[in-house]
Design a protein that fits this description.
This protein has 16 helices and 20 strands. By secondary structure, it is an alpha/beta fold. The radius of gyration is 23 Å and the shape is globular. The termini are far apart.
Length: 450
């Protein structure tokens, strides 16, 4: 960790706890800041806040009192999930108080450079692939960010020998000032989180922050098959490395005659890749580009791609029961992710779908439901899912209370050779705290069948 004094003796408000807030508060306290933590959960039910109080950090719980903003805070470190129209955040911006997320704090203290990955879909798979490739190539990577490990905690332990591979959400990227990855990856851009950002333009602007501080000394790896991502690249000062599954790009990463290519060099034959799904070729190409730019040899990249079969909750193979294969794609929190999942299978599919209603319809799924023989719905969007299922001509559509009840119901309508797929096309927050919880419940229910 860099020994910095930019936070020393400054009054800093950490707004919202969870893992990132706890880590940021403790770190700022260590760096000599006068830290106040404000969390909505009551103190008596808040072990995180209780632990921070024991460290000597001021804690205010149970509400977000707007008068806190009159206490002269110089910086606010915001939990990424708190929207900018929150009265505390809106009030802070009106007063000219800088609002950052803990990713910015991580960058300030890190001795290690960053490889940052963002986009609508494929972030977790791409982040994991980059990490595994760098690890296989003896580059001493650390993994952090939206994938589950708090960035500032990782940065605190990192040295100049490491590289921090970090998955970044639009929420996190809205709160950066100087953050500048040596390599950035923009996987793709589709409608997402519009309930938070308001418009697609605002969402794209947040994602584009990943490259806003890059110079010609850094790289932006960008999807060349999408106009939205190319538009971001046109405004970047970084060296652009395009990737494509549709066209040959001698200056980037692409596919030619059954080979993964990087700048005209053959890296690996596609037939030897273990990870299923054509959509994953985009993730593989972008990860390969980052690994090659980091000096990883082809054989290390090959070893990873020959053995890597996916990440938990992202088209994760669970098990086979009586000839039925079960897949957990709980991380499919939007329509495109579910489209990609459905496209990965030729066998008949029983689809488990539904969740938080964000006001959208699911008509985009219609062309991809041809192979779905039954649909089990749950959550707020169950009626919308049923409507699109009927339009697709699916004869068996059953509504259940939750994922736990969906699994035995799916099994009841299945036959040997079928795929039973949890791919909700929706966020989990109507019934479950996270998509991970939803996926774990699915896995547990599948194993109960045995």
């Amino acid at each position: 960790m860099k020994q910095i004094n930019s936070f020393s003796h400054k009054k800093i408000l950490v707004l919202g706890l969870a893992k990132s807030g706890v880590t940021a508060a403790a770190l700022l306290h260590k760096l000599g800041a006068f830290v106040t933590v404000n969390d909505k959960k009551p103190f008596s039910e808040n072990p995180e806040a209780q632990g921070l109080l024991e460290q000597g950090i001021k804690v205010i719980c149970g509400e977000h009192p707007i008068e806190l903003l009159d206490e002269g805070f110089e910086i606010i470190v915001k939990n990424p999930g708190i929207p900018y129209n929150n009265p505390m955040i809106a009030g802070a911006i009106e007063k000219g108080i800088p609002v950052i997320t803990e990713v910015e704090l991580a960058y300030e203290i890190s001795e290690a450079p960053f490889i940052g990955i963002t986009g609508t879909n494929g972030k977790t798979t791409t982040t994991t692939l980059v990490y595994e490739m760098l690890k296989e190539g003896q580059k001493h990577p650390l993994i952090a960010g939206n994938i589950g490990t708090v960035a500032s905690g990782v940065a605190e332990e990192a040295t100049s020998e490491n590289t921090i591979v970090i998955e970044l959400s639009s929420f996190q990227l809205m709160g950066i000032v100087d953050f500048n990855p040596k390599i950035a990856i923009l996987t793709n851009l589709y409608d997402a989180h519009l309930d938070y950002h308001g418009t697609k333009q605002e969402y794209i602007a947040a994602k584009a922050n990943i490259t806003k501080n890059q110079t010609e000394l850094e790289y932006l790896i960008v999807n060349a098959d999408q106009e939205e991502t190319l538009a971001v690249a046109r405004h970047s000062k970084a060296g652009i490395i395009p990737f494509s599954t549709k066209k040959e790009l001698p200056e980037g990463a692409y596919i030619s005659d059954g080979w993964l290519m990087f700048k005209r060099e053959k890296v690996m034959e596609i037939e030897n890749i273990a990870l299923p799904g054509n959509h994953n070729l985009e993730n593989i190409l972008s990860a390969m580009a980052a690994a090659k730019l980091s000096g990883v040899e082809n054989r290390a990249i090959q070893r990873v791609l020959e053995t890597f079969t996916g990440v938990r909750h992202r088209l994760q193979y669970v098990t086979e029961v009586d000839g039925r294969k079960f897949y957990n794609d709980s991380k499919a929190t939007n329509i495109l992710a579910t489209i990609n999942a459905l496209a990965a299978f030729e066998a008949p599919v029983i689809l488990l779908a539904g969740g938080l209603d964000r006001g959208n319809e699911f008509d985009e799924l219609l062309p991809y439901l041809k192979n779905v023989k039954a649909m089990i719905t749950f959550g707020q969007t169950a009626p919308k899912m049923e409507r699109i299922g009927k339009l697709a001509g699916i004869k068996t559509i059953v509504r259940v209370d939750n994922v736990d009840k969906a699994v035995p119901e799916a099994y009841r309508y299945s036959e040997t050779g079928d795929v039973i797929l949890l791919s909700p096309a929706c966020a989990s927050w109507d019934q479950y705290k996270t998509f991970e919880v939803r996926g774990d419940i699915f896995i547990e229910a599948v194993h109960k069948l045995k």
